Backbone:
């Protein structure tokens, strides 16, 4: 097990992502951040705070639970639903930025796109992730990446965040030291 | 056929042997006569069991049981005499029907099949059947019962009790107040409250028993209480006996073992009339049987085809198989538990029922009487498999239970009618 | 969890998970998500041996919002009226590949029997069996109480719920007594002794005979439907006498706490166990109960069928042979 990002690095990555989101969307007025619970929702909150610091104006943010849209439901026991919070005005005509912690097969994001489709019709959907560990199984890419980390499939990437884990760090487990 | 049963033990556990000539027990071997040796080493010799409460379903429901299949089940359970309840189609309420059943028993000749006659025509509870005609028939019926139904009308019950005195008959009452048990499904209590099944209160049984012992006292007649199930009923019979009332009572094997909490599975194999009661009742029944308040164990063997049980509880038929498991259940609940000796158990399952019914050649092993007996391996245990029972039906509540005591051989009038080894 | 036959099948944690999931589902539904793909390809059979349009529609709406295929199978006009047994029906549904069967039956225990291993591999949900249980009704009642009195979270500790009327014949009462107590609430049963089962003392609920005495004590009062036929079976002398002693009316409403809610599982006998003005008062949550029924039933269907089911595992192991 080894630390691949520490608290400072996480913080710098999120700050950079925040700037990139603003740059791509020409400010924050049409942006709606949707974090995917659990840790994606926490990261989304942090990005919201960072953007609001930079822009000095409020940013819309919410959460989107994708459980009901997963394609692997029948492979495991049923999962507990997480909260979905869509801000008052809805997502129509917004630039929705999905926020998640680790970007891997792409299946979570596919489920999220389906979920968004049920909620409304945004102007665009973008994707921000803290870690991109590769091994995509679907033609999906991220718009904003904190750090690209090449991994083997038998490794797992763990994101710990202060709010629930007591510490900010990203770990990689199961790497065979070569 | 002459037999010599050697190396057996009797019900007291003492070594014993038996000489049989032409179906009858003799005191000692006769010079020049050849005997076939039956080695009963390790087995206990008991008089053939006698059941006063058997449903054979013939005529009318031969899909559930026949006199033949019921007789096969009986001898596999160590019984040499069974008593066929009259709730057949047609009801055994005439000399003709009881003679038919009696002759079928004779024809198959595995055990004695003694018909019980209906008290009322078609078991309607209103009009007395021709009781004397049934007694005077070849079947010589002495026990009458509307079993399955209660003789609820007190006047009809009184008349029946009086009427059978002319030939020393007995009325065997199925004690169930019909109004208190309308569409009742199981014992009324904690479990019925939980399961939402209509309750069958103990008082519905006890009220009829109380009424009938008083009637029997009043007209000085013989009353037999079928399948007693409640602690209160035991108490009533105990007091009646103290007062000298001519009442006898029976208990079934299943009521000695099972309690109403098994119904929580909604498995209708546990649906029976009268219903399974509580642990308190089970203990009272065992005590009653031990102290003689309850005279006998009777099986209430009640076969039903699978489709009568494979349905909603409310729609399922009442009844359980009993003949092939009765001895083992009696042995488990009464002897293994230390309440009575094997000798007393056999008295309750053979001697006493034969006395009550006046089945002269049953209930004892004595010189000069017909050789009706069974050989039992008390040490053996067996797992009940409903598919391997001899009954045509499968509705045993003891499926997969491991029970002590195995009937190995049964002899009827000196002839081997069941041999478990031969079956295997 | 494979089946929902009785509230006894649920631990407190299970029950809370069903309620929490129902909260999320009801919020999502408000956010204009009318339909989820979650149970696409799953077949849910509504097997109703007893007429109950309300319950059937509620389950049907719940299943359809989760994209399940719904087959309605009612006893009327089917082979069941021609004597097909419960067992044969189960085997038929099994052969059709039903992932779940929602059964309503007039016989207590019918759901348990249907769920026997050798009969049905799919899930069985009890939608009311005789006078035994109606677990989803109790869940939606608990959901409604929690929404009104506990802001949609946690258990019901500290609350007192009165259940009034024909407890003896009520599957709603049995399920509610079990569930409400499991969730920490105190239950007070109020009925004439004729309409309480022998053995009710084992339920852990208080039993009272005076509605007037109980009303000031409770946070919710649940009025049970009283069938007029019961009068014929001598359970009470006349409707008027029943109503006078055990019916909820405006005068009795005044004895309730201001915050207390009035519930009824429906269908109501207005004027018998509940007066029209009580049923329509601002303290009544009877209409909400109906609406909440869909969310709670979606939750149950999701938790039973949304993940890998026993049937899935059987199929995949069969495929490996």
Residues:
């Amino acid at each position: 097990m080894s630390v691949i990002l520490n608290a400072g690095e996480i913080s710098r990555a999120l700050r950079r992502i925040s700037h990139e989101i603003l740059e791509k969307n020409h400010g924050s007025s049409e942006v709606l951040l949707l974090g995917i619970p659990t840790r994606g929702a926490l990261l989304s909150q942090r990005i919201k705070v960072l953007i609001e610091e930079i822009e000095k104006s409020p940013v819309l943010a919410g959460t989107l639970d994708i459980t009901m849209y997963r394609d692997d439901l029948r492979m495991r026991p049923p999962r507990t639903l997480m909260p979905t919070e869509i801000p008052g005005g809805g997502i129509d005509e917004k630039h929705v930025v999905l926020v998640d912690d680790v970007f891997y097969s792409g299946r979570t994001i596919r489920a999220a796109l389906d979920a968004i489709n049920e909620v409304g019709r945004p102007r665009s959907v973008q994707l921000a992730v803290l870690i991109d560990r590769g091994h995509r199984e679907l033609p999906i890419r991220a718009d904003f990446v904190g750090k690209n980390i090449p991994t083997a499939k038998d490794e797992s990437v763990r994101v710990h965040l202060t709010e629930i884990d007591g510490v900010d760090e990203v770990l990689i487990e199961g790497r065979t030291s070569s | 056929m002459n037999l010599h049963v050697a190396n057996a033990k009797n019900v007291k556990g003492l070594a014993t042997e038996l000489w049989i000539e032409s179906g009858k027990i003799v005191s000692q071997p006769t010079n020049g006569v050849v005997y076939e040796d039956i080695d009963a080493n390790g087995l206990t010799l008991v008089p053939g069991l006698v059941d006063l409460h058997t449903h054979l379903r013939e005529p009318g429901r031969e899909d559930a049981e026949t006199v033949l299949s019921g007789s096969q089940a009986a001898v596999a359970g160590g019984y040499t005499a069974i008593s066929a309840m009259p709730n057949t189609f047609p009801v055994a309420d005439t000399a003709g029907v009881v003679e038919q059943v009696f002759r079928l028993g004779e024809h198959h000749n595995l055990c004695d099949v003694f018909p019980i006659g209906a008290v009322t025509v078609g078991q309607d509870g209103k009009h007395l059947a021709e009781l004397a005609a049934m007694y005077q028939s070849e079947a010589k019926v002495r026990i009458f019962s509307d079993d399955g139904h209660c003789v609820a009308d007190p006047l009809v019950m009184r008349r029946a009790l009086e009427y059978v005195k002319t030939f020393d008959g007995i009325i065997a009452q199925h004690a169930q107040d019909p109004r208190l048990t309308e569409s009742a499904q199981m014992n009324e209590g904690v479990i019925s409250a939980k399961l939402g099944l209509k309750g069958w209160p103990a008082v519905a049984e006890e009220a009829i028993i109380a009424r009938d012992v008083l009637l029997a006292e009043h007209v000085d007649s013989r009353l037999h209480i079928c399948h007693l199930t409640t602690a209160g009923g035991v108490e009533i019979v105990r007091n009646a006996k103290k007062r000298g009332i001519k009442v006898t009572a029976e208990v079934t094997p299943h009521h000695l073992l099972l309690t109403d909490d098994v119904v929580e599975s909604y498995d209708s194999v546990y649906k029976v009339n009268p219903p399974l009661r509580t642990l308190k009742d089970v203990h009272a029944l065992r005590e009653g049987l031990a102290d003689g308040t309850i005279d006998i164990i009777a099986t209430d063997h009640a076969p039903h085809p699978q489709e009568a049980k494979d349905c909603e509880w409310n729609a399922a038929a009442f009844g359980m198989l009993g003949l092939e498991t009765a001895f083992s259940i009696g042995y488990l609940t009464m002897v293994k538990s230390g309440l009575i000796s094997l000798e007393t158990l056999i008295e309750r399952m053979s001697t006493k029922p034969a006395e009550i019914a006046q089945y002269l050649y049953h209930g004892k092993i004595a010189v000069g009487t017909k050789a009706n007996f069974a050989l039992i391996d008390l040490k053996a245990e067996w797992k009940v498999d409903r598919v391997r029972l001899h009954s045509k039906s499968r509705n045993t509540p003891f499926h997969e239970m491991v029970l002590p005591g195995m009937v190995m051989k049964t002899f009827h009038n000196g002839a081997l009618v069941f041999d478990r080894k031969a079956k295997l | 969890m494979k089946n929902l036959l009785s509230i006894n099948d649920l631990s407190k944690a299970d029950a809370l998970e069903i309620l929490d999931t129902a909260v999320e589902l009801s919020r999502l539904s408000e956010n204009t998500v009318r339909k989820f793909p979650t149970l696409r390809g799953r077949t849910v059979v509504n097997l109703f041996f007893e007429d109950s349009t309300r319950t059937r529609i509620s389950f049907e709406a719940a299943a359809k919002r989760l994209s399940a295929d719904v087959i309605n199978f009612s006893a009327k006009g089917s082979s069941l009226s021609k004597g097909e047994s419960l067992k044969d029906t189960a085997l038929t549904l099994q052969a059709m590949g039903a992932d779940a069967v929602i059964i309503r039956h007039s016989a207590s225990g019918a759901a348990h029997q249907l769920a026997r291993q050798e009969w049905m591999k799919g899930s069985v949900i009890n939608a009311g069996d005789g006078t035994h249980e109606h677990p989803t009704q109790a869940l939606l009642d608990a959901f409604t109480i929690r929404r009104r009195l506990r802001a949609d979270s946690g258990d019901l500790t500290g609350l007192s719920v009165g259940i009034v009327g024909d407890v003896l014949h009520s599957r709603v009462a049995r399920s509610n007594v079990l569930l409400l107590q499991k969730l920490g609430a105190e239950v007070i049963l109020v009925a004439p002794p004729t309409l309480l089962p022998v053995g009710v003392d084992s339920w852990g609920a208080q039993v009272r005979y005076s509605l007037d005495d109980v009303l000031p004590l409770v946070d919710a009062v649940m009025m049970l439907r009283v069938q007029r036929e019961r009068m014929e079976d001598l359970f009470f002398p006349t409707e008027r006498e029943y109503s006078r002693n055990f019916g909820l009316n405006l005068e009795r409403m005044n004895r309730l706490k201001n915050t207390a809610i009035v519930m009824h599982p429906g269908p109501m006998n207005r004027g018998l166990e509940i007066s029209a003005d009580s049923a329509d008062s601002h303290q009544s949550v009877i209409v909400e109960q109906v609406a909440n029924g869909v969310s709670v039933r979606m939750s149950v269907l999701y938790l039973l069928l949304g993940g890998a089911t026993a049937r899935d595992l059987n199929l995949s192991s069969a495929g490996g042979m």
Summary: The mean pLDDT of chain B is 97. The domain at 2-44+370-423 of chain B is CATH 2.30.40.10 (Urease, subunit C; domain 1). The first helix of chain B runs from residue 67 to 76. Chain B has two domains: 2-44+370-423, 48-357.
